[in-house]
Specification:
The protein has helices at about 35-45, 60-70, 85-100, 120-135, 180-190, 205-215, 220-225, 240-245, 250-255, 275-280, 345-350, and strands spanning about 1-10, 55, 75-80, 105-110, 140-145, 155, 170, 175, 190-200, 230, 235, 260-265, 290, 295-300, 305-310, 315-320, 325, 330-335, 365, 370-375, 380-385, 395, 400-410, 410-415, 420-425, 430, 435-440, 445-455, 465. By secondary structure, the chain is α/β, with parallel strands linked by helices.
């Protein structure tokens, strides 16, 4: 059986402002009605595939669970990384965990933010590569290039005919992201493929590879796993040994050193959506080559991407050629398509200036639902709070603020000190400064309320938690 290992890290910078550190692109609906993470999980489910092993950060553990539940799936394990350490430690810990559970398992390492429209064809490609993996090969997947792309790494094969093979082929070498002229030359040569960053191997093969090529990672990874603590349905890796792991990708740690590598060619459509230009390429263009969202209008525009991510906010382009314009409620990006690889540079500039839109949205997701800041001024803030059915905020108090709650949809169960009461639509209550309180949704539909905060400090760190069903500190 094959265990998909879905890697769910990332800083969410390349597709800013739609993707941000607080909710990176794999959890966003960029193409279709599911997030990229959901599409990846569904793609490798059923048949020979077991429930996935998820490797993610503390910030996204509830997002992962919620998105899997929404498509009727669950994880075999969700490993929580205490700190970002790149893909080599993540893959190693997943392999060591699987060695304890199923020593004969096969592992398919898959980034969770790729677009592969023909899922069945890619699954068949994985299964065609399985015999080589079970014979001790580390199989990487190569994509037949459609253009001279400078945003991808490449794989060199021995001759052009290898790209059409139905079984894994010998790898000559890895090539880093090229400049435009080199990419053009490799496309013309015909024996180069894009590196998809997808790998297939047995547990035994990959552990032996780490023991040979990156032995310094073994001891801290084992310690992080053996000292891990259960946290609800998650496995929280131990921070001290994990912090001693080198921050290194699996490409540098293993793939560029291993001698038992082979390449499984894939001739279908694939994209890692690494830039807004890539999003345009994966879209459905109009007769002028424009890709438009529901709330976007193009007049005399060509080859452009216009997106509004907010109902009621219209984006209109006039006379634009090869332009990307993406509008969010709190930020707008306008760039030439050829410059969209520089979005990360813009995000770093915003961070330097202390602009919160660089990393966070107006809407902040929590395991119980989400809240959105509607207005913020001196000594006051207005929020819209949405609580999922059956969910509850922690039992908490604040040192610096009082709160007024007004229910606008559904029913709220409100605890204030020793009093518990139900509030229906258009009913309200007051939470005095220092009061121990909790908000719950006992109903079967989302509950929405408006919260008005007043006080000397309104930051999210002014929370003292006494009880929490999500085990947050």
């Amino acid at each position: 059986m094959i265990y998909p290992v879905l890697l769910c890290g990332g800083n969410g910078t390349r597709l800013w402002p739609l993707s941000r550190q607080s909710l990176p692109k794999q959890f966003v609906k960029l193409v279709g009605e599911e997030s990229l993470f959901q599409a990846s999980a569904r793609r490798f489910s059923g048949g020979q595939f077991r429930d996935p092993v998820i490797v993610t950060s503390d910030s996204f553990r509830f997002t992962v669970t919620e998105q899997l539940e929404a498509i009727g799936m669950r994880a075999a394990a969700t490993l929580i990384e205490p700190l970002p350490r790149n893909t080599a430690p993540a893959v190693l810990c997943a392999a060591l965990w699987l060695r304890e559970q199923d020593p004969g398992a096969d592992i398919l390492v898959v980034p969770s933010d790729h677009v592969i429209p023909d899922s069945e064809r890619f699954r068949e490609t994985v299964e065609a590569a399985l015999p080589a993996a079970r014979n001790g090969s580390i199989v990487t997947f190569g994509i037949v290039p459609a253009r001279p792309e400078t945003g991808y790494g490449y794989l060199e094969l021995s001759d052009p005919a290898c790209r059409l093979a139905s079984t894994p082929q010998a790898l000559v070498r890895f090539i880093e992201k090229p400049d435009s002229a080199t990419a053009q030359a490799m496309l013309a040569a015909g024996h180069f493929m894009w590196n998809a960053g997808v790998f297939l191997f047995s547990v035994e093969t990959i552990v032996k590879a780490f023991e040979r090529y990156a032995p310094e990672l073994i001891a801290p990874a084992l310690a992080a796993l053996r000292q891990a603590k259960p946290d609800l349905q998650f496995t929280r890796l131990a921070e001290d040994p994990w912090s001693k792991l080198q921050n290194i990708s699996i490409d540098y740690a293993i793939m560029e050193k291993a001698e038992n590598l082979s390449v499984m060619p894939y001739g279908g459509v694939w994209s890692d959506l690494g830039s807004w230009d890539a999003v345009w390429q994966e879209g459905t263009p109009d007769t002028n080559g424009n890709v438009l969202s529901e709330h976007a209008t193009a007049i005399d525009c060509r080859q452009s991407l216009l997106r509004s991510e907010t109902e009621g906010l219209e984006v209109v382009g006039i006379g634009l050629d090869d332009i990307v314009a993406v509008a969010m409620p709190d930020a707008v990006l306008v760039a030439r398509k050829t410059d969209t690889q520089r979005v990360k540079q813009a995000v770093e500039s915003l961070k330097t200036r202390g602009v919160k839109q660089a990393t966070a949205f107006k809407s902040d997701h929590r395991p119980w639902g989400y809240y959105e800041s509607l207005a913020l001024g001196h000594r006051f803030q207005v929020k819209r709070i949405v609580v999922k059915p059956g969910a509850a905020l922690s039992l908490q108090s604040h040192h610096h603020r009082a709160e007024h709650w007004i229910v606008v949809q559904g029913t709220a169960r409100v605890t204030v000190d020793n009093e518990v009461r139900l509030l229906g639509e258009n009913e309200s209550t007051y939470i005095r400064l220092g009061a121990v309180h909790r908000l719950e949704n006992p109903g079967k539909l989302p509950m929405i309320l408006i919260e008005v905060q007043t006080g000397s400090y309104l930051g999210e760190d002014d929370i003292v938690r006494y009880e929490d069903m999500y085990a947050r500190g």
